[in-house]
Design a protein that fits this description.
The structure is a single chain. The protein is 43% helix and 16% strand. By secondary structure, it is an alpha/beta fold. It folds into two domains: 17-259, Type I PLP-dependent aspartate aminotransferase-like (Major domain) (Aspartate Aminotransferase, domain 2, 3-Layer(aba) Sandwich), CATH 3.40.640.10; 262-388, Alpha-Beta Complex (Aspartate Aminotransferase, domain 1). A hairpin with a 4-residue loop joins β6 and β7. The radius of gyration is 21 Å and the shape is globular. The two termini are 38 Å apart. 49% of the residues are buried.
């Protein structure tokens, strides 16, 4: 049933009907007053979500474009960078920095764990000459379903003095992150994640220190030139032709998010995380992330039974029930599948996803009570809602 799928992946995420309909509005002049009004509203609301009074720029690009913009506008070839990797996207960012000529020192941490702060402090303490210009880190690593402890990481980096560049593409808005209070220099995000919009736009917040770095950064850039973006943003325009329909969708997505309220929005994601973990465990499955304190509110990685593997689970869920789970990535591809619970996903979606998972497991020969996941999730959700009342 291609017309009806339950999309339980970390992006693209489901979109509300009002967001999709917003894309059908008539085309307008991207240098005219109507677009300026849209740009002004979107920028103001993004600042609320980022919790910053600083610059936030909207790029017509995926989240990877925002990550590239973060690098090329703050660094020069030969600059030393410390990359903290807990999975696939940490590895990707380190590779990008190398491509543009940075000297990258990468700290890898075991899959399913967060950054080890002692290791980070030790590495930074050995840089007596302060040659490390920037630290790269993922706020939420979707390949493993781990949230990094950003306040503690920020404190360690500030003590050293390097800039802190944060990939928050999948985590911003769904997980509490105060850009200004934590003193984050660059923060990246994307429309197809918590913002409940189709792919096509990314966002990048720059601190005053990061904007100063952009004045002297020598990495090659043109399309992602933040100084040019700042120049045009002052008149509520973009330097290059923007994806106007995506701006319309983002405008509506932000309205819905702020109408729900960030605290309620984030509480919903925490509730869905706990329901996913409880449901998978009740079905007899093992979670990749043992420590609930670092478990992602936007995606849960689950080991498939060894005798079955993740691909048959995903295939049967899709072809028979129209439910889409995410694949594992890199070293986890053959052992893990992931259930996303990000953006326009609610309690009923989670119950349906876990109910289908129970059915699929039984049909594939795994001994379990197919209703156990739903029951455990229902109980978890009820406790959370009662606690909020």
């Amino acid at each position: 049933m291609d017309e009806k799928q339950l999309l339980m992946i970390p992006g693209p995420t489901p979109c509300p009907a009002s967001v999709l309909l917003a894309h059908a509005r008539p085309m307008i002049n991207h240098r005219g007053p109507q677009f300026k009004a849209v740009h002004a509203e979107v920028t103001e609301n993004l600042q609320k979500v980022y919790r910053t009074t600083g610059d936030v720029f909207v790029l017509t690009a995926s989240g990877t474009g925002a990550m590239e913009a973060a690098l090329v506008n703050t660094l020069s070839p030969g600059d030393k960078v410390l990359a903290l990797s807990i999975g696939n996207f940490g590895n990707r960012w380190a590779k990008m920095a190398k491509v543009f000529g940075a000297e990258v020192d990468k700290l890898d941490f075991p899959l399913g764990t967060a950054v080890d702060l002692a290791s980070v402090r030790e590495k930074l303490s050995t840089d007596a000459d302060k040659t490390i210009k920037a630290v790269l880190v993922q706020f939420n690593e979707t390949s493993t379903g781990v949230v990094n402890p950003m306040p503690a990481i920020a404190a360690a980096v500030h003590e050293h003095g390097a800039m802190l560049l944060v990939d928050a593409v999948s985590g911003l808005a769904a997980i509490d992150l105060d850009t200004d209070r934590l003193g984050l220099d660059v923060v990246c995000a994307g429309s197809q994640k918590a913002f409940m919009c189709p792919p096509g736009l990314s966002f990048v917040a720059f601190s005053k220190r990061a904007m100063a770095a952009a004045q002297v950064a020598k990495m090659p850039k043109f399309y992602f030139d933040i100084l040019k973006a700042q120049e045009f943003a002052e008149k509520h325009e973009t330097p290059w032709t923007p994806a106007i329909p995506q701006f319309y969708g983002l405008q509506q997505g932000l309205r819905l998010m702020l109408q729900e309220g960030l605290p309620a929005f984030q509480a919903r994601h925490l509730r869905l995380r706990d329901a996913a973990r409880a449901g998978a465990t009740a079905l007899g499955l093992r979670l990749l992330v043992d420590d609930p304190a670092i478990a992602s509110p936007v995606i849960t990685a689950i080991y498939a039974p060894e005798a079955i593997g993740p691909d048959p689970i995903r295939k049967l869920a899709l072809t028979k029930y129209g439910v889409v789970y995410a694949t594992g990535q890199d070293a986890l591809k053959a052992s893990v599948f992931r259930i996303g619970h990000l953006g326009f996903v609610d309690d009923a979606d989670m119950l349906a996803a876990l109910g289908v998972l129970g059915n699929v497991l039984v049909e594939l020969g795994f001994p379990c009570d197919p209703s156990a996941g739903i029951v455990a999730a229902q109980q978890t959700i009820a406790r959370a809602l009662n606690a909020q009342a």
